[in-house]
Amino acid sequence: xxxxxxxxxxxxxxxxxxxxxxxxxxxxxxxxxxxxxxxxxxxxxxxxxxxxxxxxxxxxxxxxxxxxxxxxxxxxxxxxxxxxxxxxxxxxxxxxxxxxxxxxxxxxxxxxxxxxxxxxxxxxxxxxxxxxxxxxxxxxxxxxxxxxxxxxxxxxxxxxxxxxxxxxxxxxxxxxxxxxxxxxxxxxxxxxxxxxxxxxxxxxxxxxxxxxxxxxxxxxxxxxxxxxxxxxxxxxxxxxxxxxxxxxxxxxxxxxxxxxxxxxxxxxxxxxxxxxxxxxxxxxxxxxxxxxxxxxxxxxxxxxxxxxxxxxxxxxxxxxxxxxxxxxxxxxxxxxxxxxxxxxxxxxxxxxxxxxxxxxxxxxxxxxxxxxxxxxxxxxxxxxxxxxxxxxxxxxxxxxxxxxxxxxxxxxxxxxxxxxxxxxxxxxxxxxxxxxxxxxxxxxxxxxxxxxxxxxxxxxxxxxxxxxxxxxxxxxxxxxxxxxxxxxxxxxxxxxxxxxxxxxxxxxxxxxxxxxxxxxxxxxxxxxxxxxxxxxxxxxxxxxxxxxxxxxxxxxxxxxxxxxxxxxxxxxxxxxxxxxxxxxxxxxxxxxxxxxxxxxxxxxxxxxxxxxxxxxxxxxxxxxxxxxxxxxxxxxxxxxxxxxxxxxxxxxxxxxxxxxxxxxxxxxxxxxxxxxxxxxxxxxxxxxxxxxxxxxxxxxxxxxxxxxxxxxxxxxxxxxxxxxxxxxxxxxxxxxxxxxxxxxxxxxxx
Length: 750
Fold this sequence. Notes:
It is built from 23 helices and 28 strands.
């Protein structure tokens, strides 16, 4: 009978399989391996540990199958009945096999254990049967040839059964027909079974050679089998079909020898003598485990980190907090930075970063869905990120495994310089932002703009110490500052007068650093260097108790030259306080008349064009962008300017570049408890700067408390406004190269 026509049947024995306490993995393994050597598996049967059931299964099988494979029931206990029952049904006598008994005794002795009497049962062998030695346990397998049937009895534990079948049974099965068999298993990833079948239908299900599809989780196997009178003939047929399949499928094929996607990828790393480092979130270390499960992986696996918490991503991988705040941890940008951080930490050739939502819930990510996963792979020069949507109906483990396998698939393609379908490539100098991939933002700019506005968090952090001081001030407090005017106003004079005034005022307070005023002089105030303990929130210039406090620099120090950011806070905007006229900047007319703020320092004079005025809410936390201690990267910079434009009472036709230097004046307002009024300006050259054109902002975005205080709802489409201003920011922001900052970020040599 031709091997290609032989039918095989699998019978698994065990109560534990029927009641679901043990997963029946033996069936899938045997089915696949039998198919690989040319058998057609026609039936699976599972029976209980009862002699009558085993006999019935055997009588049924011999009438329809050439090969019957049993697993289970070969143990030493009374309910292990398979061998005895099958032998009796076939009329075969059991006899003691001395070699088998000795092997069982040595097995126990080598483990420091005593062989029990009931283990002798396992040395009983049907007369005329061949013994399949068990290298991993005590129960030998049995190979019986009876008439036209072949019956194989294998132990139930997979770690014993699988190697016994492959090493001992398969060679005997291949000899049954006298024909030579060639078999290979192609692994395919990145395409579903149904689509794959349509694509290669002309090559499937032939007689000789034969190819069949077997779907697995996240991949598909193509089993190719061919026959011949010689090994060479069988191999020639099979390899010819494999070549056609590989030509058709190209990069979708990751192996042709049955390797898993993880094994194929690790082997490729070993072949190339390259290494990998991994940073995982939703996969929870699964990728690292799959790598280390493979023998020889220590040669290629350098670093693995499970980084669930955002603080771990920041502290251990260098993912900037601004990215986590703007994009959230479930984003392409963060996945890319995780991969880059892992590669750098592990000093590896490649990095992998995975972040997503495995479910069952979405947690705090209400705008995202279960099954959303971002995977990034990188080397020293570039990063490729892909978004996966595995679906919210899958369970947690399934999503994690699919994510891990997808990461391996991306890496093996990346190593070969192949296209990753659905992936987007970024250089390591830009943020991997799939959401705005048409406007990549420079990572080099991250540190250039770390310069751009310490104004923000410094501004708001200081407000907490100031906003409780309000409008009623003692007359003596006011007179204290009136007395100063004759001294500090001379700062506006010549350089000689300014030097003299600085010297005089510095003698009275060594924290003195300058004066701030606007066009009309409504705002004119001495400025001191602020202290972390809000020392000046309740003290005047002379350090005496004073409800007016003193205007203090909270960011941009030291003032030996014009700072990138200059942030000055005062105690309030109410009547008679130092920044009482700051609230007047709500009016577009007032802003037009007082569009320039001037800071007089010891070593410089700086003029700033007012570009925005807006309200924030310190009690509600404000917008997170205004809490940052600096604009540490390009995203911070863009987010800052974007929010500034959305929130301002008016718009100013001033193109803001990333090289700008800013000033921020801020103070508590009287709008509601916790409100803060902020006025921002950008450094200008008064001789070349053209007069600014102010226009009303028709869609001002106020803090939530503003709407609540008025009993109205926010009718602004925040998303639309954000997109509108985003395009403005991009088109009006010119990147500035900063090689030193770039080196700090890139550091590609680890």
